[in-house]
Design brief:
The complex is a heterodimer of chains A (655) and B (100). By secondary structure, chain A is mostly helical. Chain A has 26 helices and 2 strands. Among the domains of chain A are: 272 residues, no CATH class; 72 residues, no CATH class. In chain A, a hairpin with a 2-residue loop joins strand 1 and strand 2. Chain B is elongated, with a radius of gyration of 17 Å. In chain B, helix 1 packs antiparallel against helix 2 and helix 2 runs antiparallel to helix 3. The chains are: A mainly alpha (655), B mainly alpha (100).
Chain lengths: 655, 100
């Protein structure tokens, strides 16, 4: 079977071929051809991943496939190697598997989206970026050293930026989407700075970037240089906070919803944002040496899980709720890997990829349904109608259950899986994380509260979107999406329902599978109290959501949220996201702007330009003074010669 | 035998007159004449010292100076004619169109 491992570079090359074909010939291929090539590229990468997984099934030992030498400088030798082990192949399967489904969905979704936004030419660009993302993500997960991982890490950040700003001229004041993309990029740079510093420390302490070298020396180096090892882990955590949207760098992810919905599903829910979790799981030998760092990671994750869940309760944009939910679930994963429960974290990563991309894609289907109804209402004379009702605002929805039945059922599956209702996928993975947190009561409490809020806001969303009476004209006339969109939804729904079998208590396939790569795994435990507790909490959240949002049908879109009546101040706080954006703006952005203003006005214009202009003025003044001597009168020149002669002679004679 | 200092004094007077003429007059012809005066002041000194030291080289130098001066006057007068044709004047202060 080992011969098949030579196929691994194709997980990168196939999407490269796809994007090149679309880039060069896309204009002639038409929408069908572009979508087919892009989906095929992702799909074939999935096939390769499956082959690799089967190969590992026979012989689960990690294999490194050498592709090319990259940097050879002195003792530094960074090669472009592909690492095939159970951890990287798990990520490859998720990226290409979920990625393929989202590609197929996007062929339908983007057709409507480019028509709706009035620029069909961007269809090709979207799929080029999408394939490029798969390329970068595959480089990230298949790297066998930290530097190649960083290449992919930056690559996915770039694709994220490009796709958030896909409709860069749209949004608030025509700048909203561009601003969101810029925010994501800038905040991610802060995290990437952390990764970069960690890389410098790693090279300084270990003399290599190679995973195998670093991890084999981890014990010795952490004995000799505990402070450096701690710094490495904490700077890696900063990178994780940036990429996986953890406190305090999570602020970019909600704004990233400015991108088209497939982008939110693929990049900002299923794959890229989980890269941080992967990074910690990959670096587990380092984190295992530093229990203190693991504690900090777990706390960051748990606090993020709870904090983001509170904000999700107060949002009214269907995608914003899911965005905060993603942050919260990433918090669960980060908390899990921080506590050493790498398998639980990876398990939740996989199941979350299923149900959160399902939720995003179904939300996209809902938005499309609303937009279609809105356009049908206003007529398509101009081809691009003015929006009167926000198709993403849940307050404008309601009663979509009967209008979009298939979307409703898959959405329900995703929501229940996310809420942790047995026996759906989310129940098992979340339960494992909660069980692992049982050793640290404070983290357990935070996570169980977050789990309750998760069930509550998902219930709120279901009741606001699908139940009650339609609260706007488009909602009343919404129609079901075509099969190209609902097909991937059904597949993802099935995965969300049965995904739990990956690591069923007792069987623990994923745990055995990953144990070949991730050593010293905290064994997953299944305890009835925790399982029943998390199930109870999930059901309780849904029941409370029903009491608040489902029992009575909601009023008009303008009427206040039912929670606002009972929890006025608290609801306003979560609705405004605890004013974190405003605080960041006041503390960092304003200070930075003042600094740049100071640097631009007094320093740049005053000192630097002043010096340059002053020199210019000085030399011009001197030139003008001298040019007065050159008056064109021959006799003046003759006089000057005579005087000079007299002076020279006088000097020679009298000295 | 007139002492050499007399020749020198005469030469100084002639040279100074020439310098004054060059610096003060505006007519190009007069400036040329003043230049000739300065040449000849120098020539006078050459000849005076040649006779004083009984050396022939001073007198030979004078011949060279006279031929070079003649050539210089030929070129100068040609320039003068060319300038007069374009400017209708030989006032040197008029020839200032190339000033900065």
């Amino acid at each position: 079977m080992a011969a098949y491992f030579g196929l691994v570079p194709w997980v990168v090359f196939l999407p490269v071929i796809g994007l090149l074909l679309n880039l060069l010939f896309g204009r002639r291929l038409g929408e069908k051809g572009i979508g087919l090539i892009a989906s095929l590229a992702a799909g074939l990468a999935f096939v390769v991943s499956v082959v690799l997984a089967l190969g590992l099934g026979y012989n689960p030992q990690p294999v490194t496939i050498h592709r090319a030498d990259w940097l050879v400088v002195g003792s530094l030798n960074v090669a472009w190697n592909f690492r095939v082990d159970t951890l990287s192949v798990t990520m490859m399967l998720v990226v290409s598997g979920v990625g393929t489904l989202i590609h197929i969905y996007a062929t339908g979704y983007m057709h409507s989206d480019v028509c709706h936004n009035g620029d069909p030419g961007r269809y090709r660009r979207f799929f080029v970026f999408f394939n490029l993302f798969i390329v970068a993500m595959m480089i990230l997960v298949s790297a066998d050293n930290y530097l190649m991982l960083f290449v992919g890490w930056e690559g996915v950040g770039l694709c994220s930026y490009l796709l958030i700003g896909f409709w860069f001229e749209k949004g608030q004041e025509g700048l909203g989407n561009a601003r969101a993309a810029k925010k994501a990029f800038v905040v991610n740079r802060i995290g990437d700075f952390g990764v970069l510093v960690a890389l410098f420390f790693i090279f300084w302490a270990f003399g290599s970037f190679n995973f195998t070298d670093v991890f084999s020396k981890a014990a010795a180096v952490s004995q000799a240089l505990p402070a450096v090892t701690l710094a490495i882990t904490l700077f890696l955590l900063l990178g994780v906070a940036g990429k996986s949207a953890q406190l305090p760098l999570y602020v970019w992810l909600p704004d990233a919803m400015a991108g088209p919905t497939p982008v939110s599903a693929l990049i900002h829910a299923a794959t890229m944002v989980t890269a941080g979790v992967y990074l910690i799981a990959r670096s587990s030998p380092l984190f295992n040496m530093m229990p203190a760092a693991g504690q900090i990671v777990a706390w960051v994750g748990a606090l993020t899980a709870f904090f983001a869940a509170t904000i999700a309760v107060g949002q009214s944009d269907i995608k914003k709720v899911l965005a905060y939910s993603t942050i919260s679930q990433l918090g669960f994963m980060v908390a899990a890997v921080g506590m050493g429960a790498y398998v639980a974290g990876m398990f939740h990563l996989v199941t979350h990829a299923f149900f959160k991309s399902l939720l995003f894609l179904s939300a996209g289907s809902v938005i499309l349904g609303m937009e279609r109804a809105d356009e049908g209402q206003h007529g398509e004379a101009s081809g691009h109608t003015v929006q009167e009702t926000d198709p993403q605002d849940m307050r404008n929805m309601g009663g979509l259950q009967s209008r979009m039945p298939l979307t409703f059922w898959v959405y329900l599956a995703g929501a229940l899986a996310l809420s942790g209702i047995a026996p759906l996928a989310g129940f098992f993975s979340k339960d494992e994380i909660l069980a692992a947190a049982g050793h640290t009561p404070a983290i357990f409490v935070l996570l169980i509260l977050a789990a309750f809020l998760t069930a509550f806001y998902m219930g709120r969303q279901i009741f606001m979107v699908f139940f009650g009476k339609p609260r706007s004209q488009p909602a009343a006339q919404a129609s079901e999406s075509p099969a190209i969109i609902t097909g991937p939804l059904v597949v993802l729904a099935i995965l969300s329902v049965v995904g739990g079998v990956l690591n069923l208590p007792g069987l623990a396939w994923l745990e055995q599978w990953l144990s070949h790569t991730v050593q010293d795994v905290l064994p997953g435990e299944f305890t009835w109290p925790v399982a029943l507790g998390s199930l109870t909490v999930g059901l309780l959240g849904l029941v409370v959501a029903w009491l608040v949002y489902g029992r009575r049908s909601l009023g008009s879109p303008a009427s206040p949220d039912p929670l606002e009546l009972s929890l006025n101040g608290l609801f306003r706080a979560v609705e405004h996201k605890w004013w974190v954006d405003e605080a960041y703006h006041a503390i960092f952005v304003r200070r930075y702007e003042q600094l740049t203003h100071f640097l631009s006005q007094p320093v740049d214009l005053g000192v630097i330009d002043g010096a340059a202009n002053g020199l210019a003025r000085l030399s011009r003044g001197l030139a003008q003074a001298w040019s007065r001597l050159e008056n064109g009168f021959v006799r003046t020149y003759a006089l000057a010669i005579a005087i000079g002669l007299v002076l020279i002679l006088g000097y020679l004679v009298l000295r | 035998m007139v002492p050499v200092s007399y020749y020198l004094a005469l030469s100084v007077i002639l040279f100074s007159l020439g310098v004054m003429g060059v610096l003060l007059r505006r007519n190009a012809i007069v400036i040329f004449m003043s230049l000739e005066l300065m040449f000849n002041a120098a020539n006078l000194v050459f000849v005076a010292f040649a006779s004083y030291y009984q050396a022939l080289s001073g007198q030979i130098f004078v011949f060279f100076v006279m031929t070079v001066a003649a050539a210089e006057v030929a070129v100068g007068l040609a320039l003068m004619v060319a300038i007069f044709r374009s400017k209708k004047s030989i006032d040197v202060d008029q020839m200032s169109s190339m000033k900065g």
